[in-house]
Amino acid sequence: MSDLTRMTATEIAALVAGGEASAVEVTQAHLDRIAAVDDRVHAFLHVDTDGALAAARALDERRAAGEELGPLAGVPVAVKDVLATRGVPTTVGSKILEGWRPPYDATIVQRLREAGTVMLGKTNMDEFAMGSSTEYSAYGPTHNPWDLSRIPGGSGGGSAAALAAYEAPLAIGSDTGGSIRQPGAVTGTVGAKPTYGGTSRYGLVAFSSSLDTPGPCARTVLDAALLHQVIGGHDPRDSTSIPQPVPDVVAAAKLGATGDLTGVRLGIVSEFVGEGAEPGVMTAFRESVDALAKLGAEIVEVSCPTFAYALPAYYLIAPSECSSNLARFDGVRFGLRVGDDGNRSLEEVMSLTRETGFGPEVKRRIMLGTYALSSGYYDAYYGQAQKVRTLITRDFTAAFEQVDALISPTTPSVAFPMGARTADPYQMYLADLFTIPTNLYGGPGISVPCGLSEGLPVGLQVMAPTMADDRMYRVAAALESAVGTFTPPAL
Ligand code: GLN
To answer: pTM, whole model, 2 decimals?
Structure first.
């Protein structure tokens, strides 16, 4: 049989359903691949070999017993270490949760299990999902399979790299400001941020609760849609979960794959095609726009003037929420505890624990957020940022009166060399310039590979109105049908 690790999730599921490959064989092939390449890529923080093989065996038994299987049964999935996995280490890329094994599964993880997918393990990430390169992981960086000296994006660099390195056909990410889409773009993979509230946050370690959105990562648009369908939908355990069914993203991806976009109006965000992006990125983007037009889409330019203020607004809102959310890591309830020698006060133990357990970027965000929320500065910073958020939402609403979806490059640059931006937080933050507005608005966004620049992948972003996730899948699948997928050099 040809290499199982090179197949799409759709192909693997068909093989398993048809009895041509067992879930155990599929799982073993991916575990072998991880063993062969992950010392160089470091996509995984934890590989759950026994758990994966046990889940695969159970699935094979269900199939043998004639049970009806879901569309992704038997397909391996890598899960970002931001989601709680029962009995399996969950660190959020931080030392403060080292050794923590949650007593429960996140809703998404539970849905993955019920769907018969096989969880391979937990993927590397910037600590608490704060970062754009996975270099802020407390457990060492992940390397981009396209060029091991470059970053795989962040914060979900582990999930994206696992896909690009053929260690997993599917992965889960979380997107607060771009952490699914930006890693997708720089690794030549597909990453979708669903509508906020369209996927459950129950069991997702919180960074910025009004922005955090878990979502699917894959090597093809259809695979991402299938995964989206499995994990999405209402969850009574999450108070911000939308009580509506997931739009039919799978049908939309299939429709898009026919390559016909007649009647679809796409708006290029004027503010994102100026001098903000590298020339090579712009060339790939422009060529893709031509390809979309050839498929029948009508292309116009749409101005969204407030998007220019999205980055500063985000860097007040996200740190503010994180300063509150991360207060729970006090050395008392879970994870690390430092200095509890019987002589120190509770307060001393808490500060020693937080001093030791949090890395520099997390501390920077907590300080920023605490400052922005402090009395006297609240109105000037946090309050002002919330007003900007409202204006950004209005720009989106106005834009979607003119067009069905907005498009832009996903990121201003291709994967940058490791170490290039760690000394300058602002340069690191700029990686999410084009993805952040979507989070502030709450709508869905997808990154789909659209070309190469200097031999490195470039992503095109499609943004749609809230609960119109199907639209972005249609456009992304159409583009994929025109430009194809991109394969990194052999590792
Ligand atoms: N890079 C952005 C940040 O550092 C977004 C992170 C994310 O989406 N989790 O906050």
So the answer is: 0.98
